[in-house]
Amino acid sequence: MSNAVSHQQHTTAIERIMAMPARHPIIFLFMAALLWLLVYTNLSDFSAMIVSGLPLDQEGHLADTLRFLIFEAPKVLMLLTAVVMVMGMINSWFTPERTRAMLAGKHEGVGNVMAASLGILTPFCSCSAVPLFIGFVQAGVPLGVTFSFLIAAPMVNEVALTLLFALVGWKVALLYLGLGLSIAISAGWVIGRLHMEAYLEDWVRDLETTTNVDVDAVSMTMSERLQSGFQSVKDIVGRVWIYVVVGVAIGAGIHAYVPEDLMAGLMGKDASWWSVPTAILMGVPMYSNAAGIIPIVEALLDKGAALGTVLAFMMSVIALSFPEMVILRKVLKLRLIAVFAGIVASGILLVGIVFNLIL
Amino acid sequence: MKNVKVLGTGCANCKTTVDLIRKVAEEKGVNIELEKIEDIQEIIKYGVMSTPGVVLDGKVVHAGGVPSRNSISQWL
Description:
heterodimer; A: mainly alpha; B: 4-stranded mixed sheet
């Protein structure tokens, strides 16, 4: 794209548009937002139009399923693209290095709250969990505060919140945000109270503390932030779109074909006491991300599953993943991993049971 | 000859980074020594927190994500 800028005399219309994000980032954003709104608000009519043109029983299950799929999948993907784009730009202010500098030397309590909140804003990929963990501990961030960050970062993120908002509604999205943060804050606080520093792997404990936490002083221009937004869209939407489509398809299948009584009996409000723990246990070996699980969550809710049980299931799938624990084993002794998993699972259990009781 | 190390525990982005650097080097006809460092203790020594990271002649020049074609081109 920057090439187009240097050969101004040869610019064609396409090159000029391609160069737009680099030269006029604000105008580009504004126009992209307008175009996005136009398409987004007309999606429903568009999908109804396509399905009405197909030679099938317009009142039947299949037509319903198709209408849902053609409308829902693009809607979710568009919303996701927009949010990931904006978050990608916001993320460029919150690099892990800067987050670490903000957390270093913070005490428990305030530190846990800050760490969990920063977990939402700091870009995080589970393959970076280990270097990040060590980087935090090395800079003198207390163990419990580090855990608050590690729990919040994958669980409460823009992808999960956007999908909940789009498919289930803003109330549940807000609830998830609040509960996810509470679990991260309190679980981190408890781990801190337990003083489990002895259960770090020896080589991690023996690392010297770095005193000079250097924050990269490079300031980015608006067009560079825009580029980092594009990059996140490429990374994140490129990775999760298939989960969204498959999830929406499974969700559509549940909508159309799973009988309501069955689901209400298994996961409903009046199901037995073991439905929440079972939902959590089922979630641990499942390795999916928010993108794949939320369309299914929406369908389960619609079929009469209780909100607490479903939320517990979802949190367990995202926050308690077996592969991540295997990665963490490189820096934590088994006992600390067990404590970590146990505390997070109890938090989720509590959330699930309390919700089923009061709602 | 420049020595380039890619730090990463083996995620997809780290592989992409290695491939991209090799490709840019070939295109420019620059001879480089390219290494991939997967050992976590080694990675920590460079103070990198978000992988993939890139080390050029012993100095960290990039961390957290696949570097852009332009920056790779400048390093070489």
